[in-house]
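URGENT: need a sanity check before tomorrow's submission.

F., can you look over the SDR family oxidoreductase record below? I want to be sure the sequence and structure line up before it goes out.
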Amino acid sequence: VATLSGRIAVVTAAGQGIGRASARAFAAAGATVHAADINGDALATLRGEANIHPVRLDVLDAEAVAAFFAGVGRVDILFNCAGVVHGGTVLEVTDADLDFAFDLNVRAMIRTIQAVLPGMLERGDGSIINMASIASSAKGVANRCAYGVTKAAVIGLTKSVAADYVARGIRCNAICPGTVESPSLESRMRALGDYEEARAAFIARQPMGRLGTPEEIADLAVYLAGATYTTGQALGIDGGWSI
Ligand code: NAD
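Structure tokens as predicted:
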């Protein structure tokens, strides 16, 4: 059933992983999707897919973001998926890591929301989805200080937008995944040295005994894109990690 028929969606970080799966799921549900990513090679894998318009965009570049949204015009669904994972405890986190994590995980989301919200308010309708994580205010995760701090901020941002515009047709929700199979997770596992051991450790922290798939997270994004009575929520989808 096409639940997003006639809707126009923007997905950031759509070149791979959860963003890519969500762009494809939005399109399969009937939406027209602008699939944005900084990595043109990754986007090339989406070329030719029905109802998907790949666009190279660095969400850290404020001018490029403003120009992109001005060109797109109407946006009914915004999925802010771009994010970065830094390792390290509070004693190890550097100012540079913190700045980068806040810029990509938080400020970039604020800018895209500022770009789409006036139009959504004019139409009295819009769904904004922000990618947080279970590693946030939902759960403390070892060695993820900059990540957990900034993903907690994503939940704060989500609730702030939801509270301000709840009576004006805007829904804003956050997705909090557990550990999900994706290219960047693969790189993190490889970077730890012993790949098999790292993979086993990531799986071991998921009580279901397996990693999540990008498609499972995309299903929740489709639900939230079309949801009419859910706002201000940080929805866990984590294979039982936070039980
Ligand atoms: P990924 O990390 O493998 O891919 C991220 C994509 O973002 C890449 O295609 C990259 O080119 C793009 N990107 C990076 N910087 C960008 C920028 N400045 N502008 C535009 N695009 C940019 O994908 P993933 O692991 O599915 O992660 C996607 C989101 O989900 C992130 O916010 C991440 O924190 C979150 N998340 C992931 C997991 C997981 O286990 N994979 C768990 C919880 C939350």
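My own read: Strands lie at 8-12, 32-37, 52-56, 77-80, 126-131, 170-177, 234-237. The pocket of nicotinamide-adenine-dinucleotide is lined by residues 12-13, 15-19, 37-39, 42, 57-60, 81-83, 85, 104, 131, 133, 177, 179-180, 182-185, 214 (CB under 6 Å). If you see anything odd, call me.
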